[in-house]
Amino acid sequence: MKKRLLAQITLFTIAGVFLFLHTLHLRADFPNHSPWVDWAKYTDEGWYGDAAIRYYLRGAWHVPGDFNPAAALPVWPLLEGMLFSVTGVGVVPARSLAVAVFVGIVVAVYVLMRRRGTGDEPALVAQLSPAVAAAMLSVSPFLYAFGRMAILEPMLILLTLMAMWLAWTPFPEGIRSWARLIGLGVLAALMIGTKTTAVCLMPAVLWMLWCGEGRVWRRFVVATVTAGLTTGAIVGTYYAYVIRPYYLADFKYLFQANQYTGITRATFWSVVTETVHKAAWTGPAICMTAVFVVVAACFRRRIWSDPLFTGCVLWIAGYFAFLAYHASLQPRYYMVVAVPLTILAVRGAEELSSEWKPAAVVIAGIFALVGAVHARETLHFVRHPQYSFADAAAKVKRVVEAERGHSRTLLSISGSDLTLMTGLPSICDDFGTMELEDRIAAYKPGWFIAWNYVEDDKMDSLAQFYQLTRVAEFPAMDDPDRNLLIVYRLDAKKKPVPTARSRNGMLAGEL
User: Fold this and answer.
1) Neighbouring residues of 236: CB distance < 8 A, sequence distance ≥ 6
2) Helices marked H in 48-90 — which ranges?
């Protein structure tokens, strides 16, 4: 008993130390020279918090014709907006919120993993696996890199874990039981309002609800209908009274911009194979352990009676289905499956070693080795923060503010990130409900911020209005396609002065 208590204290200490390390160097860039080349580190923190950023800097969250994802995804910008009302707009407060969410994820995983059983009263367990899972999540370099970014995925994970816990936790009959189901419906609506791919995670939540209702069909149907009606009422009311009359174009545009798919009948197996292979981004050892556990579970029916184990399998399968369909395999998307993969590996390893004690020693050694390797990589990121993008943004601000009387508005695909870091107003040069030339004419930007070079379509649109003057360039980050931030001043072209003509159409003096 003393050994188990000592082991738990050690694991909690490790988790606590590494969670604290998440709070350091929040202004720093996404770790350079990491295995994860993801475009989100240039754009997403600004894009998906834009509504909150603009509200406090411009006085209105919506910029007509520009990219306004908050119309369809309002939850994260609302949270950021509440924070900015206290702290002011900045990348450090935004990332602090993301770190707080990640801490919530670790706590939620620990709480979920302390539960066992399939009946009405899941039992608490004293095994080390909940603490092991918390420590493994905390030391993960993959989750360190993406868990500190103010993006949508961490909030989606936390809400999913909360929904699974509430679905699996039976309340006494009466008001509290109905409140639980209504609360579950509210959480489902928040999941969809955070990231619409949440619909791919609903099978896992429904499975937990099935287990929480004692696997009784009548109770499950009543619970599902109650929670579903609550979700439908919230989403439907928001659509009917906010989106449809005011922001329908922005709402539709988000889905139009992401409706493409790279999977066809000819590419089906290659896309599926690549989708599964890319899961190694989350940690090859964890992935291999999870795969081994699932394969072993095929020969051990008892594992499938664990609601959390099966729920995590459904979670992973549902999100892999989205990843394969979308076929845009960015590393950040895999953050959503990194957490259930860790739960699956730890929970399954505990179950498999429960009947054969020698296996427990081997499994404990494997997790200790993997944790040590991950901790070393994370410590490397912590000890070597870099600020190339952050410093470049500050230099851009100095260049812009030095040109007094010139428009301060930036045009850039990274404009929203630059706004978050500097407070300079911006519009996006890539996404928006208006054509780029129409947005340029409407908002008259004074500066164009490009990565490495000016794309032909951007030049064609800008050339109608401006003469581009290259005034500065700043190295930033490590992506060979985006490692040089170039600043162009946009000088309006002079309009030709009309010349008086004679009545027969010839210029005066031509005779």
Assistant:
1) none
2) 50-58, 75-87
Q: Which amino acid is at 99?
A: V
Query: How big is the CA angle at 309 (ends 303 and 312), to the nearest 5 degrees?
Result: 150
Cβ neighbour number for residue 300 with a 10 Å cutoff: 14
Q: Which amino acid is at 190?
A: L
Q: Return the CA Rg of the chain.
A: 26
Report field, pTM of the whole predicted structure over 0.90: yes
Longest dimension (CA), the chain: 110
Contact (CB, 8 A) for 147 and 155: no
Closest CA to 75 of 164, 244, 191, 157: 191
- Cβ neighbourhood burial of 428 (10 Å; 0-12, 13-18, 19+): buried
Give per-10-residue mean pLDDT for the chain (511 aa). 83 97 97 91 96 96 96 97 97 98 98 73 64 96 97 98 94 76 97 97 97 93 96 97 96 85 79 91 89 79 86 96 88 96 89 70 84 96 96 97 95 97 96 95 97 94 95 93 95 70 40 28
Kind of pairing, strands 447-451 and 426-427?
unpaired
d(CA 149, CA 46): 10
Residue with tokens 């095994």: 127
Query: What tokens were used for 32?
Result: 């350079």
Whole-number Å distance between alpha carbons of 138 and 22: 9
SS3 call for 73: coil
* Helices within 22-140 (DSSP H only): 40-47, 50-58, 75-87, 91-113, 129-139
